[in-house]
């Protein structure tokens, strides 16, 4: 029997080869794709997220773990689709207009994928119109926005207004170094996260 604890451990260690081989073995043995996802990949990323919150691991370790999870997900995804497994939520994410920083945003996107969300990453320098268009066309439940510069933070408020005017019902979560809970509340965002691991908790609570 393929060992899902070994799969979780491979994700934690960032061991891509083992993560892929255990995923393939589990599928060939007829294990349910959802069990492989929940008890293997997500379980591993949960441990990493928890350690990241406690400052026991840092961004490089998280990125390495997320990469291992991503390579295993490439094997698993077609089987999840065939089995009709739905993501726990759908999120459109991007760095706001005028801002080209993406490390934090990429980390949040990876952690959310690792938690079972479908993530549509729009990249950097994303206009309010683009956020609206993608949130509408993808029927997203959440819109995530990141800013690293104080000068680009107003782009978040503009985007929220554009989403409201377009009648988009998605809930908005914001983050980035200069962003605070107070700022999030002031501009009408429903969620704020100080780091990538907390972003997963925020996203889960917003779609619950």
From TrEMBL:
Extract the Gene3D superfamilies matched here: Cobalamin-binding domain, Methionine synthase domain
Tell me any Pfam family this protein matches: B12-binding
Task: Name any one GO molecular function.
Answer: methionine synthase activity
InterPro entries reported in the protein's UniProt record: Cbl-bd_cap, Cobalamin-bd, Cobalamin-bd_sf, Met_Synthase/Corrinoid, Meth_synthase_dom
Could you provide one GO biological process annotation from this protein's UniProt record? tetrahydrofolate metabolic process
Taking every annotated instance into account, which residue ranges of this chain make up the domain B12-binding N-terminal?
Answer: 1-88
Q: Which domain of life is it from?
A: Bacteria
Q: Which residues form the B12-binding domain?
A: 88-208
User: What keywords is this UniProt entry annotated with?
Assistant: Cobalt, Metal-binding
* UniProt GO cellular component terms: cytosol
**Metal-binding: present as a keyword of the record?**
yes
SUPFAM superfamilies per the UniProt record, alphabetical: Cobalamin (vitamin B12)-binding domain, Methionine synthase domain
Q: Hey, which family's this protein in? A: Belongs to the methylamine corrinoid protein family.
According to UniProt, the name of this protein is: Corrinoid protein
Q: Which organism is it from?
A: Anaerobaca lacustris
Q: Which lineage do the record's taxonomy fields give for this organism?
A: Bacteria, Pseudomonadati, Planctomycetota, Phycisphaerae, Sedimentisphaerales
